UniProtKB/TrEMBL annotation:
It comes from Streptomyces calvus. Belongs to the bacterial solute-binding protein SsuA/TauA family. GO terms for molecular function: ATPase-coupled transmembrane transporter activity. This is Sulfate ABC transporter substrate-binding protein. Keywords: Cell inner membrane, Cell membrane, Membrane, Signal, Transport. Residues 1-23 form the signal peptide. The lineage of its organism: Bacteria, Bacillati, Actinomycetota, Actinomycetes, Kitasatosporales.
């Protein structure tokens, strides 16, 4: 169903925010193209395509893409079709690339996916798979905050107004009985919107007392002397909530379904390999991070950050709906209509072929 005018206005406000991808998936707005992948010589092209353009972010929460690129899972599945990678630094730029037909498939967070889908009245993208869960923590200065009660009156950083972590913290604060104005961040707790790249410096200087942030920023704060007061996974059933999805342009899904299934097959195989070889996978992800950004993560950050992320084929659709509801309750947007945001039929075909159980779209699937 098309979004209401009020809903479009609400998302128009949120559209200027980098949302989850800026917070959890790097910084800036430019895509870096990886020209290392090459089509398999002599192999047939999938759907006759010369290339499938795959976007992801240079962050551990996009470990499926990092490892799948590094170990060649995507290229193997695509055969004679080149896996053409683009490394993005922010959610809006990836959504723009999808909308402008310069990207076909992207690994992306829930807020940019919801934002992009709703702004386009449900006509531009579909979530076709899951990738990762978890990896978000409340890290505090142990000299100032020793318990949950001590958070009241303190300055807590979140990555951006209206991003997924910002909404999660506002929702959690409300559950503690604290009142916070969602726009200004002022109230019983002061919410300081701070880019992840500068939050460690703010924490070190004492200008914030803690931060509700994704990995690896959380582990960077711990390396600076911070203490994990709360892992967001503890607030969710079975400790799972979506942090990274796989989205595709609807036109690409319609015209090249075999290519989409090939990418999903590679994603499923990559996640299986990651979960069977966690140490090797962690190394592969860090190597790809270094290739993409020129800088690898040190062990004291990499190890705990990787440990807190769970790689899963399930998009955890019910948790995306809950995250959207939290944004509504926080007063940051009107109730969105997410009907049709998922098309999990291709993924479920891949899962059944692999002998795995199908996953559910929580009633939000395309009909």
């Amino acid at each position: 169903m098309p979004a209401t005018p009020a809903l479009r206005r609400a998302f128009a406000v949120l559209a200027v925010l980098p949302l989850l991808a800026l917070a959890a998936c790097g910084y800036g707005s430019q895509a870096k193209h990886d020209d290392t992948a090459k089509a398999v010589a002599g192999a047939a092209k999938v759907d006759g395509l010369d290339s499938a353009r795959i976007g992801y972010f240079g962050n551990l929460t996009h470990g499926t893409a990092l490892v799948g690129n590094r170990k060649g899972f995507f290229q193997k599945a695509l055969g004679g079709t080149e896996a053409a990678y683009a490394v993005f630094n922010a959610g809006p730029s990836a959504i723009e690339a999808l909308n402008s037909d310069s990207l076909d498939i992207a690994f992306i967070g829930p807020s940019p996916a919801v934002n992009g889908y709703t702004k386009a009245d449900g006509k531009n993208l579909r979530i076709v798979g899951g990738s990762a869960s978890g990896g978000v923590k409340l890290v505090v200065d142990p000299d100032k905050v020793r318990s949950v009660a001590d958070v009241e009156g303190k300055r807590i950083a979140t990555p951006q107004l209206g991003n997924t972590q910002d909404v999660s913290f506002l929702n959690w604060a409300a559950e503690q009985g604290w009142k916070v104005d969602p726009q200004s961040g002022k109230g019983d707790v002061t919410v300081v919107r701070s880019d992840n790249k500068v939050t460690p410096d703010a924490f070190r200087s004492g200008s914030v007392d803690g931060a509700w942030v994704p990995e690896p920023t959380a582990s960077k704060l711990v390396a600076e002397g911070g203490k994990v007061l709360l892992d967001e996974a503890s607030l969710w059933p079975d400790g799972q909530f979506v942090i990274t999805n796989i989205v595709v342009r609807q036109e690409f899904l319609k015209d090249h379904p075999k290519a989409v299934e090939a990418v999903l097959k590679a994603s499923v195989e990559t996640n299986a390999w990651i979960n069977a070889h966690p140490d090797e996978a962690k190394t592969a992800a860090n190597e790809q991070l270094e290739t993409d950004s020129g800088k690898a993560l040190p062990a004291e950050v990499l190890d705990p950050a990787w440990e807190s992320i769970r790689f899963t084929d399930d998009p955890l659709a019910a948790t995306l709906a809950v995250q959207a509801e939290h944004a509504v309750e926080a007063g940051l947007l009107e109730q969105p209509d997410l009907t049709g945001i998922y098309d999990l039929a291709p993924l479920n075909r891949v899962l059944r072929a692999a002998g795995e159980a199908a996953v559910d779209d929580a009633g939000l699937g395309a009909r």
